[in-house]
Records
---
Amino acid sequence: MIAVPGAGKTTMLTRRVQYLIESRNVKPEQILVLSFANASIEELRTKFNTILGADVSRCVAIRTVHSVALELIAKTVRVGKGGAEKMFKRMVADAIRVATRLPQPWKEYQHLLVDEYQDCSPKQSALIAALAKRIPNILVVGDPMQNLYAFAGSKYTPISDLLSGVRTKVMGYSHRLTRQNAALACAVSSKSIQPAKIETTKRGPRPALILDSNLRNQVKRVAGEVVSLLEQQENAGDIAILARTKAILRPFRAALLARAVRTERIGDHVPAQHAMTIAYMAHKVIQRDIKPLTLKELNIKLGQLELDASALNLAFKKLTREIRPGALEGVFAGCARVYTALFVDKDVRRAILHEANRWVPLCRQFESASALATAIRTNESQTPVMTSTINKAKGREWQYVFLVGVIDGLLPIYHALKPMDKGKQQDKLDEERRLLYVATARASHSLRVFQSPVHHAHTRRKFSEQSRLLDVALRSRVLSIEDYR
């Protein structure tokens, strides 16, 4: 089943399971559902719980391809010291050999359903085909144009190339896209994969390409348009800012925070309690209140705080030695460094420090640390405008999408433009096209694409050439142009 963006492929798959159980009297234990990533597994589990109930959905096996591979080889593989990484690399290949010797049917499974099939590697596709030969019925769902993991070895292999007697159907109607956005998605699609025709009856505004003279103006324009939508009582949860990389999103998040608009990155929520704790510590330093902090005191002010009392006080003593009362901006930054050092996990520490650093430039707007803490609490209570890389945005939709940083060097990314073998470069550019295709297909109403010259810190280059991925779209005039240069 090949499904265009917004066709409801995951919903169709969950309804198929419901039909099998309720209308065909198939036992839940006889159904195996596979997907590529843990995130899609969690989405499927949530939907099954909703339509089937927790008791029934618990009996349906919902797993990643890798977890099945690990089960198949678990009894035949011994992992030596330092061998876990090697085992993981060959795990799927070993599982294919084991799968060819499985009884039929395997574990009494009667139905195999695969979601997000386009993200599977050739070996994972071969494993699915081997399992399908031991399970009577198979349904594979995916969209070749939404394969975004070629860098990790993913490559779309039609299941009909691996199994005989496969029927291919297309879910071509999109419940999400307008005709205008669908036309743009098709115009930027990969040249190596012919996308399925997108049918829709929805109409909306024509997608726009906004040209600015520099990134600063682009940031101001996007922030202004987001604030304007919120002033028109649009829901912040219906707005998203997407980019190829996380780095390009940072100035947009900072600009919106300066305008008291909360933003959040998909899959990267950091509780405001951390920033509030840092603000409270800054308040104590400025007030020269160096009495030991107690968890009871912090719980009264900040709610439950999962920190060891002794570790907290050691940090506070270090704080009073290293930081002298002064401007709130400097004190808050110093408190953030001391506080984040309490956390062992590097990723957690980095995320908390990143979130705290977003507030540092805004400290000048507040008369006291208490006022800053109040602003942080107020910001946390708002519905966030979502910011995301295109990869993490796959499978989601918003009414208003701002796609920023669409310029040669960022989208397509600079390392896809380096001199290399023509075939290899075409593969890389095709992956960039699929990224742009996915990004344009996130908008259910308005899509605005932003382009401006960018000074790239990592390569120390200035990217200023129009994105080559938009050439066809501009020639076919599916994009309107707003030039503010």
---
Amino acid sequence: MGCAPGYIGNCCFKVNSPLFRCIPYTGMCFHCLLNYYGSYCNKRCSPGCADNVFCHRDKGTCACREGYYGETCLKIGFPNNKSRSCYCADGNCSEMDGSCLSTNRCIVGRFGLSCQYKDKAQDALLEAIEEADLLVDNDDSTCVNVTNNTINAFWTEFVRIEWFRLVFYIEDSSRNFEIKYVGPNQTYPCSHPVVLYPHDPNRTVDIICKQSYNVKSITVSWSGDTTICSYYFSGGRTLAFLSVIDAIIQTPKDINKTRTTAMTDGDFTSCLTLNSSTRLELWFPNHIVVSEIVIYIDFNQTDDFKNFAIAFIDGNVKVYNATTSMEDMFVQRAVLRVASTVTTLEISVVSGSQRICELEVIGDCQAPNTGFLCEQHCKQGCKDNACDYNGTCYECIGERYGRSCTDVQVDLASGMAEKAFNFWPFLLLLLLLLLLILLLMYSRKKMPVVQET
């Protein structure tokens, strides 16, 4: 007896269904793999479900991980917070810049002043470090000893690393670092890395290489203290919320634009259908540098999954084209080999139609722009107009120094010479005055004395 239409294999399981065990000739499952649910295990549990927790077989409900809420954990943030981009551990964020108001701890997977950076350390495997979980728990007070002062981090897939942060147990601003990236068929040494200490005391160290790479492993070695409390590998900032997003519907007779916030509202249940006549256009008020696009499609979809085409545009010039690949059936990703500077992104479905529910644009502001909205500028004293999110210069030009390179270092010898030069007129005047006094005294001494008679 053969399988019913749409089913294949000895167990007659449904095409594209990640089954564990199924009923012959129907494809219905006894059990689903982790992260899937439904009679045919063809529905995806929310990315907000807690790690290693099965969602409800029929409803998809689950216990939420930190930073997600809702019955099926399909909403990002916290129900009592109005900020659509709040990633603070307690859900208490500033409406102005997303910074944490009552705690300095972000939800797991995020870090930074406004929890704006995606942490790739969560996906890494560490070699020969006991209690390695303490290094990625977003708690800088839990520390471990690291053998040989070295961290070897590995990923199963290529990841793009922009920079990374280490938090040590002991304050020390004299450490030396050695970094090695391993990419596709090549090793990239990070020569002369920029080392910043963004916070006082000097336990936190930000290390920036001049280039970012797509890598599968990173080796970081340092001198000094062997006890480390946290490490973070920045995969870039989330920038989609900075854009104005229009859904463009194009017909043979007309083009209509409809403004939408559904792609960046942190709600995986608010979706938009793209097809041959409908596309998305993201316009950014300032130039941004894009390294990765992540698209979440409708988690209730069961089949007929499509890829997306993305056009990267700078002004009116199309600088790059990319097509997403499926991380799984519900998450699609496009990782750029070389980051692109753009002002506009256009997203369309390759063929047919596809519902898109949430969108992440990963990258950073283009120098010299910085800040939460990329609206601030690095100070003029920063070398190559390069600074971090807080405005701290990577390097200073000339004789400038300080976090923002606004202080000027004066050469002591030249300064003394200048002061001496400025003192000469006063010295000359003093000598003339002294000479005049001496002449007066001498003239009075030579005057004849007239005696009275």
---
Amino acid sequence: MNLTTTAPANCQECPHLHNSLMGTCQMSELSLVSVGKVYQVYQKGQVIFRKGSRPNGLYCIREGKVKISKVTGDGKEQIIRLAKEGDVLGYRALMVNDPYSTTAVALSDCVVCQVPRSDFFSIIEQNAQFSHSLMRLLAKALGEAEERIVHTAYKPVRERLAEALLLLHHIYQPSTPGPFSIPVSREDLAALMGTAKETASRLLSEFRDEGMVRTQGSRITLLDLDKIGKTSALYD
């Protein structure tokens, strides 16, 4: 179970504030949110929200990485989005008061702040910049979803692996420069690509043999970003 408690710090002190939707809030609005919000600590693999449940507020990732996925008609998981520190979750369902259409799961140990529904809608009504930023998020999410549908249907799986690796690189890239490895299971990699685990493993071995990546257990290090980028764009 996740641990829920009052947040130890106010929103103004969040290290990801200026890279987040909440960065468009006024100081008075952030003070309001700081009083009402809670933070929830999730261990790797725990569900943050589940498809079919009702939204109670806006989720803001303070620490950690999250996957948002659906289960297809044949029972396979399809990851439709990855989220990192500063990202917000669940805003579409919250705005239209629909049950969640996806499930969000912690890819690592996470701290996630939840802004109450009432505070979220109060800010929308009072803050035009917040509302405009939220609309841009919705439009971007729609565009990315459409692009993913096209790529899954028409893009060869080798190119989809390269694309998935670039996305993972963006999500896991640390703030300080230097080499780093990406912790990702073969199951999650396959779900991100929209293919079978065996296919993802075979193609990853090909990328390793071609000098594009190095693998050690479930960790992947990208060695040739330029070549991976060119591979991902072969059919664009």
---
Amino acid sequence: MYFGGSIAVTALAAVAVSRSPAIMNFMISNSLLSIGGTIAAMIGTGVLCRSIPYSPGFGTKQMSWLLHVGVMGAVVAPLTLLGGPLLMRAAWYTAGVVGGLSAVAVCAPSEKFLNMGGLLGAGLGVVFVASLGSSFFPPTTALGASLYSISIYGGLVLFSLFLLYDTQRVIKAAEHHSDSYSGRPFDPVNAYVLIFSYSFSLNLEEISL
């Protein structure tokens, strides 16, 4: 429910923001204020959502979740300028990749992908540095083209592996969770928001292709 709800709310927020000229002008201005503001909003709402204890029903946790995925929708609203066909194609590709990888993670032997944590952390550092470097070196140069390729294709592979890792981690956490031992119920919001974040990143990488 939370994964599908995240997709729906993100799409609705993106459409709503795309129809507001004032907000769209702010989002596409590429100023330090807009870039810093969107990054701070995404990180801040994500931390807020994850920090609130989960309780069944609709409460503060669920409202913070809606706020977080709504901000993510606002951030990607400028992509609507690329046109519907391109976005729909990327969405179908993402759905196929996420569905296939999730099936692999569910059917794989227990903890098969849970040993990749260190490798994924190192890969994330490489992709992050490449993304920063591609901002300073134009893609027309050999170094800039290499950094851009690492950022795009490396990010695509990395987020796919993260999806395998976290899907299996969520399954294990749900299977071994004990309300009586931990003193709190299993938190599906944090689990599915994390998986949605990687699916969201995969979609952005595929649009960049």
